[in-house]
Amino acid sequence: MKSPTTDSKPIYLPSDAIQKRAYIASLDEYLEIYNASIKDPVKFWEKIATDFFWKTKPAGPFLNYNFDLNKGNIFIKWMEGATTNICYNLVDKTIQDGYGDKIAYYWEGNEPGEQKQITYQALLKAICKCANVLKGLGIKKGDRVAIYMPNTIEAIVAMLSCARIGAVHVVVFAGFSANALAERIIAAQAKLLITADGTFRGTKFIALKSIATQALMQCKGAGHPVSHCIMLKHLHTTQQIPEIPWDDAIDCAWERLMASASEVCAPEWVDGEDPLFILYTSGSTGKPKGVLHTTGGYLLYTATVFKYVFDYHPEDIFFCSGDLGWITGHTFNVYGALACKSTSVVFDGIPTYPDGGRFWDLIDRYKVTTFYTAPTAIRTLMQLPVSYVTKYSRASLRILGSVGEPIDPSSWRWFYEVVGSSRCPIIDTFWQTETGAPIICPLPGSTPLKPGSATLPFWGIVATIVDEDGIEIIGRGKGHLVIKNPWPGMARTIDGDHQRFQATYFEPYHGYYYTGDGAQRDADGYFWITGRTDDMLNCSGHLISTAEIESVLMQHPSVAEAAAVSALHAIKGESIHCFIVLKQEQLYNEIMESEIKSIIRNQIGAFAVPDLIQPVPALPKVGSGKIMRRLLRKIVRQEGHLGDTSTLVDPNSIDQLRGLILNKAKML
Ligand code: PRX
């Protein structure tokens, strides 16, 4: 239902059908619970904790924290001293509650027809086997295990088997290169790697085991040999693929190990604050940050968000198209989902293969009620003939969700009107690897929606905006998005670098967690995320820092200086544009361009390859030598007004630069 607001922007009210079934069916009810969650967070979360199994209760306070660097080091502890096991809560408890025969996952591979499914009972057996395999290979509580796998049930089994024995999983997205994988294995000091032979993304083959082998050679060279590499045989293709490297000294076959492992494995009882996983995300220095999440708080927060934000009922079928290698996959394909005894669809393909109807086909076949995807995918699919969507009924859908980037109002409307036939609310969820789960988002039955706004804070989250000086802006305004208080699902540290954790999130504005995003708050208190305010690019939902790309560009022997900025892109949201200054007497040509692209592909991954590489005589700099990326960004975004250029060393050079860039951009 649509009605106009005072500022003439349309507002979409929850429909009767959605409200009828919703846990929270009015804005007043949401607000009442929100206020209670803010007034007494301990009482609020303690009550939610009673839904789960704790071997022992917290030894001290339920919540203990310091959020203000002026008062000392930052720490956040929920339920320290309580013991539990998250895998036990997700799987064993679900079975004890009578859901053993329920399907936990439907899996669909890249090729239509590649299908599997697994019940909670069978999932538990597989997890126990895998946990025993890990134990047999010497993995103990606290050890780190790297996982570099396709989007499969086996990857989920691997993650949960770590959780079962108290090991810490470090999932690395299967689009990362050997270098990036090695960097993460070394940084996390992972003892073991689990991978697969390879996988297809559409028609593109990804040689996972070859990449893993290269990465492990690098790890060895860097003095961090990994004891074992377990390889799942995932490929069942008749297509010719390159030979798969194998070294009996460290490689082991998943199938062989699993076949002889016991189906019983007692859970390891761990502390509420023991680490559950590390997930690397880009940082503005170029060195990835190992975001560390712990056990008890993450369980409470992800379970609560999954239940209320998707209004999940046990008969619903949830489909999140996000990859397990990102936080979306961790929180919504694994932890939050299983904590709510869900049935989920895990998809290991791409939305346009074999054709642009793949998502809608999956939705019809699995009777998906709740579909969660990224604006990039929506923008890709809305370019295609609408018949790809309308060919399928999508009648099972109730709720649609979006994550990863701002969703522009026209994509929002296409998602709402075409995909959801104007029946399904769009749940635009704002969150980050660090926040564990959404922190600003609507609830389906209670929040009036405004296309382009992530709406209101979730329970327990005190979100606000501050100006450049860290002064809180009250009411309407535009500023830096910060959070005033701890919530259970937030990251506790950057692995091995707590100083960086404090400097990144707590130093910019004392007393607040700083998201790194800008936001506008309207008269109704709705938040409109305006994008990163730091040197971070968001390309197809992948966060990449400018420093990370620039340091790789500099590895080419002809490059003297480099700057990376983002341009706006109709599908990817943002695309990467790079400017390079060549060393003397070097000439730019196609060979050099492909060399630079391949360095980026090898060092980071294909998703970070720039759309444009532009040689320039000089980069715009201020007297101190700092590159004015802001100017480059304005030029590539064709913003007419460049702002103050008086601090530039050579203000006249900017016109020449603009001419060069615009000419090249026209040719793209
Ligand atoms: O800039 C915001 C954007 O994605 C960043 C977090 O990226 P990452 O840690 O990779 O996690 C992505 C999946 C949760 C944020 O700082 N972002 C995420 N969701 C939204 C968003 N921007 C606007 N609207 C969103 N709904």
Outline the structure in words.
Helix 2 crosses helix 3 (41-49), helix 5 packs across helix 9 (254-260) and helix 7 packs across helix 8. By secondary structure, the protein is of the alpha/beta class. Strand 6 (103-108) and strand 7 form a beta hairpin. The two termini are 41 Å apart. The mean pLDDT is 93. The protein has a domain at 540-667: GMP Synthetase, Chain A, domain 3 (2-Layer Sandwich), CATH 3.30.300. The protein binds adenosine-5'-monophosphate-propyl ester (PRX). Adenosine-5'-monophosphate-propyl ester (PRX) is lined by residues 281, 327-328, 403-406, 428-433, 454, 515-517, 529, 531-532, 538, 543. Residues 281, 327-328, 403-406, 428-433, 454, 515-517, 529, 531-532, 538, 543 line the site of adenosine-5'-monophosphate-propyl ester (PRX).
| Spatial shape | globular
CATH topology of the domain at 540-667: GMP Synthetase, Chain A, domain 3
Number of helices: 20
Strand content bin: 15-25%
CATH architecture of the domain at 540-667: 2-Layer Sandwich
Q: Helix content range of the residues, please?
A: 25-40%
Largest sheet: 8 strands, mixed
Backbone structural class: alpha/beta
Number of strands: 33
The CATH class of the domain at 540-667, by name, is: Alpha Beta
User: For the terminal residues, how far apart are their CA atoms?
Assistant: 41 Å
Unreliably modeled segments = none
Order of adjacent strands in the largest pleated sheet? 14-13-10-8-9-16-17-26
Overall pLDDT metric: 93
Named once each, the bound ligands are:
adenosine-5'-monophosphate-propyl ester
In CATH, what is the homologous superfamily of the domain at 540-667? Answer: ANL, C-terminal domain
Rg of Cα set: 25 Å
